[in-house]
Design brief:
Elements (H helix, E strand, L loop, with lengths): L4 H13 L1 H8 L2 E4 H5 L4 H4 L10 H5 L3 E4 L4 E5 L4 E3 L7 E3 L17 H10 L2 H6 L5 E2 L3 E4 L2 E7 L6 E7 L2 E4 L1 E4 L3 E8 L5 E3 L1 H11 L5 E10 L2 E9 L8 E10 L7 H10 L17 H11 L4 E2 H7 L4 H13 L3 E4 L2 E4 L1 H7 L3 H13 L2 H13 L5 H9 L9 H21 L3
Parallel strand pairs: 5-16, 12-14
Antiparallel strand pairs: 1-3, 2-3, 4-13, 6-11, 7-10, 8-9, 11-12, 14-15, 15-16, 17-19, 18-19
Helix pairs in contact: 9-14, 10-12, 11-12, 15-16, 15-17, 16-17
Length: about 425
């Protein structure tokens, strides 16, 4: 696991304050923003939206961090993250009103615009199952005072935590006749999320309102709005959340049929294999697309990608290389940015964009030949069959059967993504 600036700074903090010894004796270690600032800016050192972003010394010792005031944090073996449940595949079609001209559904590159589009198209109202909905509170505010208990990582012990006016930030909140909904919005696809992003605002507003409070995690990527509705079965228990509803929406035409994919197979021109970019080892093609979205109009270093996205350093390499392999991303002077092709594809509507991504994949012989065999036989080729196809596809930088087998999983996964687009 490669070290970044946070890893180095936290190691120095742990050494100076003998944090591990304190944890062994007291169970919890409290640290101030001023103490952290001696080594690095606290806002960069204490915000880890996904478990994979935690500093190395936290990962090695099963630790996590919580804010408890505007300037104090506690560190212990907290179980702070929740793994996303598997989303269903149904996409519900919604429409923006005809008179809305200032929202372009092909140009949604921020959480705020995605939320505005979801509100204007009726997605928020449909998910809340409410009427006369208005956008209300948003932005940074104090949490107020409350107590709660949180599980340790082994779920056999609870820590009692007291929060006193910690800073929270609400991406969006909507109030209707029956419900008040708090939304945490993201554009990055990840395995998990930090429960605190929903829990602290929930506790704050639960103490102020008589209405039912809904907590919703909102993810927008590649033309699809993914909404996860949670409830806290015990308001005083941080880990008591459970999923009560999950729906996916789009305001674009998402109908793609097998003839659309067959047309690409019939017409695509095969590219020569890249000499200086390894064959992809990045199984989730949705995350390749999502990476391109995050790089749109933005140049980022490897460390930037690792810190801002739900990747570790190894995954950053895999997914940036996969996007470069397809010609969607370029690397210049250790910085990544979208290629002209990547920018062009992201400007398309949903259907044209998906088919353009398919064309990028199928322009490579190993992918093309495997999918062609699938269409001919009606069954996805086995791992051994895919390996044999790979060995006849003039691939570079693959020198062992073990590597062929590992890379074959990417072919199968990406082609399953293509097949999964078909809804005729």
């Amino acid at each position: 696991m490669a070290e970044n600036k946070n890893d180095t700074a936290w190691q120095k903090i742990f050494d100076k304050y003998k944090v591990l010894s304190c944890l062994e004796n007291d169970g919890i270690f409290q640290i101030s923003a001023e103490q952290i600032k001696e080594f690095r800016e606290p806002r960069l050192m204490a915000k880890f939206d996904h478990k994979i972003n935690l500093p190395k010394i936290f990962v090695e010792n099963d630790l996590a961090i919580l804010p408890v005031t505007r300037g104090d944090y506690v560190i212990s073996h907290f179980n702070l993250y929740h793994k996303f449940e598997t989303a269903n595949e149904i996409i519900h079609q919604m429409q923006l009103p005809d008179y809305i001209q200032s929202l372009d559904c092909n140009n949604i590159f921020s959480e705020s615009v995605a939320l505005n589009c979801a509100f204007a198209s009726g997605i928020i109202a449909d998910f809340m199952e409410d009427e006369q909905i208005f956008s209300t509170t948003t932005g940074r505010m104090g949490s107020g005072n409350f107590n709660f208990f949180v599980d340790d990582v082994k779920n056999n012990f609870h820590y009692d935590i007291h929060v006193k006016n910690s800073q929270i930030e609400i991406d969006a909140a909507y109030e209707g006749l029956k419900h008040f909904a708090i939304l945490e919005a993201k554009r990055d696809i990840s395995e998990d999320f930090l429960i605190r992003q929903l829990y602290y605002p929930y506790r704050m507003w639960k103490g102020k309102l008589r209405k039912d409070i809904k907590t919703i995690f909102f993810v927008y990527s590649n033309g699809i709005f993914h909404l996860y509705g949670y409830e806290f079965e015990n308001p005083e228990h941080y880990n008591s959340l459970r999923l009560v509803k999950q729906k996916n929406y789009s305001v674009e035409d998402t109908k793609i049929n097998s003839a659309d994919i067959q047309k690409i197979l019939d017409e695509v021109t095969l590219n020569a294999e890249p000499q200086n970019v390894p064959f992809p080892q990045a199984d989730k093609f949705e995350r390749v697309i999502n990476l391109c979205e995050l790089l749109n109009k933005k140049e980022m270093s490897k460390d930037d990608v690792t810190q801002e996205y739900a990747f570790d350093a190894r995954q950053t390499n895999y997914y940036t290389d996969a996007a470069r392999y397809l010609g969607l991303v370029e690397k210049k002077n250790s910085k990544y940015n979208l290629s002209a092709l990547g920018e062009k594809i992201l400007s398309y509507n949903f259907k044209t964009r998906q088919l353009a991504f398919c064309k990028c994949i199928l322009a490579h012989k190993a992918f093309y030949s495997t999918l062609k065999k699938f269409f001919d036989c009606g069954v996805m080729p086995s791992k051994n069959e895919i390996v044999q196809i790979m060995k006849t596809s003039n691939l570079h930088n693959i020198n062992s059967d073990e590597t062929f087998e590992r890379r074959s999983s990417t072919i199968r996964s990406w082609l399953n993504w293509i097949v999964g687009l078909i809804n005729d």
